[in-house]
Design a protein that fits this description.
It comes from Thalictrum thalictroides (Rue-anemone). It holds the Pfam family PPR. Residues 419-505 form the DYW domain. The chain is mainly alpha-helical and 505 residues long. It has a domain at 371-499. Helix content is 64%, strand content 6%. The chain has helices at 2-6, 10-19, 29-42, 45-57, 64-76, 80-88, 95-107, 111-121, 129-142, 145-157, 164-176, 180-188, 195-207, 211-223, 230-243, 246-260, 266-278, 282-291, 296-312, 316-329, 333-346, 350-362, 394-410, 427-435, 438-449, 466-479; strands at residues 371-376, 379-384, 456-460, 483-486, 491-495, 498-499. Strands 2-1-3-4-5-6 form a six-stranded mixed β-sheet. α14 runs antiparallel to α15 (230-243), α21 (333-346) packs antiparallel against α22 and α23 crosses α25 (438-449).
């Protein structure tokens, strides 16, 4: 069974397991561990449950190795509850079983739970490099730079800074927390970086608006004889897309198979559509979009990209077309309804705008609320669009934002002047809505809570709007602070009235 699994044939291993009773061979703990690993490989939770039942019947539920394998299997099948039940009922746990449960949380986007479990663990035992790498990955997913730095310190104290697995996690963590310089420093300390580490740096630089750095890293990688994979090319195309390097990006797309033997997939063509759309080459983007066959989620990404680009460049016909496609797919519904409604309003087609809004309400579809969060010391503070009702420093934050608004208006800033149409909202109400976007609330709180000169880092769950982007540029100059915002798509680093994205996002 182990041989079949190692050769990528886990289903054959499971069939072999089923024949054991016929030959009157009883499975032992090693057998169960092996066959559970086959279920993990296949993400086959139903077969995994049956094997788990066998383990219980044969009285092996206290076996450390079997339980650890079960945790891993349930985690890979996205059944966090069952993984926790196994972990919680274990008589004895070691660093491997604790690490497995932390990995389950990280893999299932439950970074906070992973960090809480890690804090509990270090009260009793010392972590190994696998656990530290998993904790660093949790910090990356949450954008928790302070906690990531503390964990990096633990890595250095325990002598794991030379470990490639840990180094890869650190490169990724710093990149996802908006510290591309730190990523580069860790990356350059790796003696023989592999394709994974190069890809992490390429993607990180791309999201930070440093497309040329991504391309330089890609070229360096090729010159060192490291073969890129399909994910590497997603990073390269992403870099070209976010830096306006569309022709260079198309050259790399065409070279994937001819130079590197990699057949471009749907993700690569989606990047190409995004590249063309961002630069305003919408007819080419539309023609390419119609030729791509992919799964529903990937098709939704494709038309969602075209929807955003068409809206930004004023191609209302394509905005409506892309919106209709997304509604047919029943994907990205809230954002699509709102964009289409606003597009019809821009065209003066108020009946259509109201019809779209009514459909949205009738289907019970609600827009995900904008949320931004900042990490100060070891605490995270979250803010939601439109309100500060539960914040004890509400008055201070609003006073800071009002003062900044006045100083921005002195420099010619007009709130809500581009790209935002709020149906049935008066001008002054619209301005209030934009003024209370979650990233502005997070910024106001950071300005009154953090020492002067400290870089402010804000994470946001949605795409940053044009109005806030213009405001943050001005504010960075007014308060003379670096402000880094990670939104849904990329990083924006505001400094001295400018942004690293060069207003191209």
């Amino acid at each position: 069974m182990a041989g079949y699994i190692n050769n990528g044939k886990p289903r054959v291993a499971l069939r072999l397991f089923e024949t054991m009773p016929k030959d009157q061979v009883l499975p032992n703990s090693f057998t169960f561990t092996t066959v559970i690993n086959a279920c993990s490989f296949l993400a086959d939770v139903e077969t995994g449950r049956k094997i788990h039942a066998h383990v219980e019947i044969l009285g092996l539920k206290s076996d450390l190795v079997i339980c650890t394998s079960l945790i891993d299997m349930y985690g890979k099948c996205n059944d966090v509850v069952e993984a926790w039940k196994v972990f919680d009922t274990m008589v004895y746990r070691n660093v491997v079983s604790w690490t497995s449960m932390i990995v389950v949380y990280v893999q299932n986007a439950l970074g906070e739970q992973a960090l809480l479990l890690f804090r509990e663990f270090i009260l009793f035992m010392s972590p190994n490099h696998f656990m530290l790498a998993s904790v660093i990955s949790a910090c990356a997913s949450l954008g928790r730079l302070v906690t990531g730095k503390v964990t990096h310190g633990a890595v250095i104290r325990r002598g794991y800074d030379g470990n490639d697995v840990v180094a890869s996690s650190l490169v990724d963590m710093y990149a996802k927390c908006g510290c591309i310089t730190y990523s580069g420093k860790v990356f350059r300390l790796i003696e023989s970086p592999c394709v994974i580490q190069y890809t992490s740096m390429i993607v990180g630089a791309a999201k930070y608006g440093q497309g040329n750095l991504s391309l330089d890293l890609f070229q360096e990688m090729i010159e060192r004889g490291i073969r890129p994979n399909d994910v590497t090319f997603v990073g390269v195309l992403h870099a070209c897309s976010h830096s306006g390097l569309v022709d260079i990006g198309l050259e790399h797309l065409n070279s994937m198979y001819t130079k590197h033997g990699i057949v471009p997939g749907a993700k690569h063509y989606i990047c190409a559509v995004d590249m063309l759309g961002r630069l305003g080459r919408l007819d080419e983007a539309y023609q390419l979009a119609q030729t791509i066959s992919a799964e529903a989620k990937e098709v939704a990404l494709l038309w969602g990209s075209l929807l955003s680009a068409s809206r930004s460049h004023g191609r209302l016909d394509l905005t409506v077309e892309a919106g209709k496609r997304l509604l047919e797919l029943k994907q990205q519904l809230a954002g699509t309804y709102i964009t289409m409604s606003n597009t019809y309003a821009t065209m003066g087609k108020w009946e259509d705008a109201h019809r779209i809004r009514s459909e949205m309400i009738n289907h019970g579809i609600q827009k995900e609320p904008g949320c931004s969060w900042v990490e100060i010391k070891d605490l995270t503070y979250a803010f939601y669009a439109g309100g500060l009702s539960s914040c004890t420093r509400r008055t201070e934050i609003l006073n800071v934002l009002r003062e900044l608004e006045l100083r921005m208006k002195e420099r010619g800033y007009v709130s809500g002047s581009k790209g935002s149409v709020f149906v049935d909202v008066e001008e002054e109400a619209e301005e209030a809505i934009v003024g209370l976007h979650s990233e502005k609330l997070a910024l106001g709180f950071s300005l009154i809570s953090m020492p002067r000169g400290t870089t402010i880092r804000i994470m946001k769950n949605l795409r940053m709007c044009w109005n806030c982007h213009e405001a943050f540029k001005l504010i960075s100059n007014i308060v003379q602070r670096d402000i880094v915002v990670r939104d849904l798509n990329r990083f924006h680093h505001f400094k001295d009235g400018l942004c690293t994205c060069k207003d191209f996002w």
